[in-house]
Design goal:
about 375 residues; mainly alpha; two-stranded parallel sheet; 2 strands
């Protein structure tokens, strides 16, 4: 039975990976509608457990949920096959687009098309930060404080501080414990040791990635990137921007925005943008290695936490820590919008396109983001040709 269900899930996630647009929230809603309400392959309680794990643990939300559902059906083999099926279609699409972009990147028409797209990407990121703040922070003053600190730090440093993001989770643990009159964060448990371990691992690994743009360096950098994604795949943007543009200079500002745009225009997980970046840095092998690196942490987290997630879910500290990290990620994303916006919105037309795109996205939340980017590309092309 598990083999048949694994095969059914594999076919389903191949289709979803090839045709699923709209980002993690839309993909998760589609999974629930199809697998729980429609086909009845997954029980509602099991789906909620998988979603909770994907929200608490680092990793792209939709991909991690898919892996968990695969694990639920057929263990390690199920998680592996379903995860590959979900990621593979969008990976192939992005690699093909990256190859075409690399060949035609020097043509004036490419620059004209992406002139408007880059401005619209700023609007998409701003809307994503707004929606994440509204859904995960609401009116919580402590979370807003964490968001504000991380936003200011990102603007000041011109990059996301991974250490500050992780410390934000510990700060929220301490704050919540203080509100209850006891230091819960210091009690025995797994959250604090795991966090300190993650912090101690990130610094040396990031240092390895600085040395060169070799394939091992790419793999390590993007594997570290996969550890700082919480919730929306767009949460990875500040870390990637700081790493590939500000520190390593692997991509220009425009190339980075083009990479994000491609991920928004293609189906599947948004973090597949790393494949586009990897291709521009080191060709086809670089794109594949980058994708393997960013999804590996999510895969390992599922295999590690899924068998014992019941105990983790019962311990409220894990969710509290994740809430703090998510608030920090929202702040980093908002800060990154400011950093990239100052470098991208260089004239009146780009500023106008960004504002118009943001107003459109906020006023018409059901409008697909690819449609907004396509419209921005047309407007940008016309402006460039007539100016």
């Amino acid at each position: 039975m598990s083999a048949q269900r694994r095969a059914d899930l594999t076919r389903y996630f191949l289709r979803l990976g090839a045709l699923g647009f709209g980002g993690p929230v839309a993909l998760v809603a589609r999974m629930r509608q199809d697998l729980v309400d429609g086909r009845g392959w997954i029980a509602e309680e099991d789906f909620r457990d998988g979603l909770a794990l994907a929200q608490v643990a680092p990793g792209p939300l939709a991909a991690q949920l898919a892996m968990y559902l695969g694990w639920l059906v057929d263990g390690v083999l199920g998680a592996t096959v379903v995860g590959v099926a979900f990621v593979l279609p969008s990976l192939l699409i992005v690699l093909v687009l990256a190859a075409g972009y690399a060949r035609a990147g020097g043509l004036p028409i490419i620059g004209a098309l992406f002139y408007g797209v880059g401005a619209a990407v700023i609007a998409v990121l701003a809307r994503a930060g707004y929606r994440l703040a509204r859904s995960t922070i609401a009116t919580d003053r402590v979370l807003w404080f964490i968001t504000g600190v991380n936003a200011v730090a990102t603007v000041a440093l011109r990059r996301e501080s991974v250490l500050l993001v992780l410390l934000s989770g510990l700060f929220l643990l301490a704050a919540r414990a203080a509100m209850r009159g006891k230091d819960e964060s210091a009690s025995p448990g797994t959250t604090r040791p795991l966090t300190i371990g993650a912090v101690s691992m990130l610094s040396p690994l990031a240092g390895i990635a600085v040395s060169a743009s070799s394939l091992p360096a790419l793999f390590v950098f993007f594997a570290v990137s996969g550890l700082v994604v919480f919730g929306s795949g767009l949460a990875i943007v500040p870390f990637l921007h700081g790493g590939v543009v500000v520190e390593r200079h692997w991509l220009t500002e425009q190339q980075f925005l083009d990479a994000v745009a491609v991920s928004l225009l293609t189906p599947g997980p948004v973090v597949i943008t790393v494949a586009f970046i990897g291709f521009l840095v080191a060709g086809m092998a670089g794109g594949i290695v980058a994708a393997m690196g960013v999804f590996l942490p999510a895969y390992l987290v599922v295999l590690l936490l899924a068998p014992r997630f019941g105990a983790i879910r019962a311990d409220g500290r894990a969710r509290t820590f994740a809430s703090g990290v998510t608030a920090a990620a929202v702040g980093a994303l908002l800060g990154a919008v400011v950093v990239m916006g100052t470098r991208t919105l260089v004239d009146l037309p780009t500023a106008a396109i960004a504002v118009a795109a943001l107003v459109w996205l906020l006023a018409r939340p059901r409008v697909p983001e690819p449609l907004v980017l396509a419209a921005a590309a047309v407007v940008g092309f016309i402006v460039q040709r007539w100016s």
